Amino acid sequence: MDMLNLRRAIPAALGLCAVLLLPPLSHANSNDSALYRAYDAYEQAVEAGDLKSIAREAERTYQIAVSELDDADPRTATLAINLGSALENLAKRQSPKEWAATQAEAFDAYQDALTRLEAQQGEQSEALLDPLLGMAKTADKPRRARSYYQRAIELSEGKPMQQATLQLWAFDQLKTHPETARSAKAFILEAVETLQSERPENDSVRLEAEFRLAMVLAGERRRLKAIDELERILGHYEGLSFTHPIALGAHTKLVELYQRIGEPELATAHCQAVGQMTPWQEDQEQVPLYRKEPKYPLDMARRGKDGYVIVAFNIDTQGFVTELEVIESEGGEAFEKATLDALKEWRFAPRFEAGNPVIAPSTVRMDFSLD
Q: Where in this chain does the record put each TonB C-terminal domain (predicted)?
């Protein structure tokens, strides 16, 4: 082997930029044999699938490169990206305390790669994408992650599909953080606009992006608009012989949305669709598609009283709750009434047998606590 090849050196690399091939041995010094030996050990760790060994050997290979290669040698940046990727994968399997420390190490490796590539190829090189995206994924604060995504998106100017992909990744990572939620929405809006102009209506990437946007609309309580979008998206998944996660997610969300706008009958078809898509679990409590929380009885709250109620009921063929019966409770009738009032509005995916919905029993426990 006369060169270290990035295609194998970073199997988990983000892969948007052009692949960098490490230069031939003649461009380096006589100590390259130590680098190749370390790299061979890394490859063996990859084949064995041991994440700790992979990270350890990636670290050793990188450190040899730092010590032995010239600062202008692009292989060091390549191996820094490799190390960041190995540490990032390791962190996913660690405890929260270990995860934070390993993520920080991964970030540092990606940052070193960025610094080296900026010096070697300039600040506008597309080769910066991999380390920037690695830094975004391992940043300790959402705002920092946003800035790295934004720079990567700017570097992709003139490549609309690449920009849309980066915007989708940014949205997925940033949408749940209050300080970056607005930016996340801007990313998904731009991605959807690009995909709608670049891809056909039935394109899977476009539909998945439109589904994300519909969920944003639902979260903003723009329910009618979200319903229209989800129903339109579902039309592209009709007739599939398998359960597609986007179709399942759309049906599930539509149950909630129709219930919230006071149209329970319109939710029925979606309850049944979910029932057909998901197997009935006999050995566990059924999870409602739409759940209304019981109101804590005011008098009980004033008195500081806790309690619980266990209710047996049937789920009918349309996913409605019927035949409710309190089988155990503690705390008094007020808790029982609050529980029954709430349960009457719950919706479930009905059980299916031989392709048809059937009535099925279930139970639920509702706990009332002021803690």
A: 281-371
